[in-house]
Amino acid sequence: MTEQPNSFKNQPDERGHFGQFGGRYVAETLMPLILDLEKEYRAAQADPAFKAEFDDLLEHYVGRPSPLYFAERLTEALGGAQIWFKRDELNHTGAHKINNCIGQILLAIRMGKTRIIAETGAGQHGVATATVCARFGLPCVIYMGAEDVKRQSPNVFRMKLLGAEVVPVTSGGATLKDAMNEGLRDWVANVHDTFYIIGTAAGPHPYPELVRDFQSVIGKEARAQMLSRAGRLPDLLIACIGGGSNALGLFHPFLDDPDVKMLGVEAAGHGLDGDEHAASLLGGVPGILHGNKTYLLQDEDGQITEGHSISAGLDYPGIGPEHAWLKESGRVEYTAVTDEEALDGFQLLCRTEGIIPALEPSHAIAAVAKRAKEMPEDSIILMNLCGRGDKDIFTVAEKLGVEI
Amino acid sequence: MTRFSSAFSAPALVCFITAGDGDTAANLDALVEGGADVIELGMPFTDPMADGPAIQAANLRSLGAGTTTADVLQIATDFRARHPDVPLVLMGYANPMIRRGPEWFADAAKKAGVDGVICVDIPPEEDEELGPALRDSGIAPIRLATPTTDAARLPQVLNGSQGFVYYVSVAGITGKQQAAQASIEDNVARIKQSTDLPVAVGFGVRTPEQAADIARVADGVVVGSALVEIVGEFGKDAPAKLKELTSALAAAVHTAQ
What we know:
The complex is a heterodimer. In chain A, helix 4 crosses helix 9 (207-215), helix 10 crosses helix 11 (245-251) and helix 14 packs across helix 15 (359-373). Chain A has helices at residues 31-45, 48-62, 72-78, 97-110, 124-136, 146-151, 153-161, 176-189, 207-215, 217-230, 245-251, 280-283, 321-329, 339-353, 359-373, 393-399, and strands at residues 17-18, 21-25, 68-70, 82-86, 115-120, 140-145, 165-169, 194-196, 236-240, 261-269, 285-289, 291-296, 333-338, 380-384. Chain A is built from 16 helices and 14 strands. The longest helix of chain A is centred in the first third of the chain and has 15 residues, at 31-45. In chain A, the strands form three sheets. Chain A has a six-stranded mixed beta sheet, with helices on both faces. In chain A, strands 1-2-12-11 form a four-stranded antiparallel beta sheet. In chain A, strands 7-6-5-8 form a four-stranded parallel beta sheet, sandwiched between helices. Chain A binds chain B through residues 15, 23-33, 171-172, 177-178, 180-181, 184-185, 188-189, 191-192, 287-291, 293, 296, 298, 300-305, and chain B through 45-52, 56, 60, 63, 68-69, 93-99, 120-123, 125-126, 129, 143-150, 153, 157, 168, 170-173, 176.
């Protein structure tokens, strides 16, 4: 670790760089729009009316603040640190994704855009985007890898019920990165009227920053709730990472609390020793894709390789640039858990707490199970339970050999 | 005089195909024999997000055939040996270009006889990622200007550009619709007021008629998807078809006035 900065919260710089990561690596056609978006975001940040509307929608439409919950039986079952959950799976639409979508659609409306596009992997971001588009009466096109359309059919139906057009993407591996390529192709052809609601803290500046800011409501609430309920800050934060927005949302407000450790959990798929994983930070190297410089799964020629995870929401070959920077700075520790460990975590939470988690945070649960045992009973782990598992029961049934 | 300044001394035809898609050497020779003045050689990438279906498919065919960066550079080296005077441009995306470091890439491209590089996803704001290495090696960084590049932004795009300016005539992806002629004329005139570099116009140009219209107002016409489609459709029989289309395009460009 090199010399510590005064604050871990002062990134990115004015050019959108988090250390060597981030930036604005887009085609010239998109550059003016990206610059406009940044200008509009700065204006929105300075506008109390924008924040008031955002807060109001989060409270009355999304259902925030989400509860902070002490998982007593899971704590007992694991024997070690106290385990607390930030219950973002209780949000409207069942995941943290909606926080960001509310913020971005308000920006889109401010900018006078009349058409919304988005990419989705597991479908959670697609559902959240379709939801806010229905709420504000804007037409919505969702790009989704054809493989994911198959894996996540309930979410496809939800998006359609909400009035969105779902376009299956067949190019490449037909998963999240290909959906993002198609989203960018649509955007470049429709810059005049279209706003691209990116679902994670990645893409060209200012997306990583603004998605993080909108998701930071998670950590701001959790920090205040923890102080009020436990009288102190947690010892360890844990969150799963695909692109990394739920983790950043939880971590960011705690970054300058030196006694709070943080652990990001990537998807190890079938194991980090092979190619079948989606752990960009642990198994990738820095490169440029989808508008930003960050850790990527790629071969020696810079061709992007397909991520694999049991969770469609995690199998993206990149990661938000701020995580890349937090890894290099040493502020956040990163680990990975396999499909099998995540399935165990999924079942553990179902049986000990009566909560069916999404497969994405099931990865975080698996990491909690490992760490809690190594920590004293008076220590506190706070995990972001960022999505509920209704969408995943078919995948889980298949893995468990059950026909439903 | 550089190869570029000779090529653009009169309206020039710029032809694009993807490296490693089909018999690239034979296809490149056919383009030159047909009358191409500048060659753009596409470096295949898994995620060509600025490209339409035709060039996406070409990228996948090439990678599916196992094309590596070393293969692309060898194709360039061999082309330079056969055609010492035809300007050669590598066009592609940032990640394969910077994978071994920008200096490595610039040096390897220079040794392969490459004159210029177009990197789709490095705008002027991120120039230091690749631009200095290219300029230091004597390779022209060729920038894209688009209909969304307004007057305030144009100087920034032109600053550090070398070789020629590639005017992307439509806000969109490659191979789709063509822009209205009036819009092309206005924008090319606007760019030419701000630079002495030649201006070539591309995106959506498929026919000799379109090419002739553009050649009347610009220094060059870029044709890509229409050629790449021929490579995809005709495989080993592509060279004759490529030469046929290129000859018609070249005649239209070279006689336009």
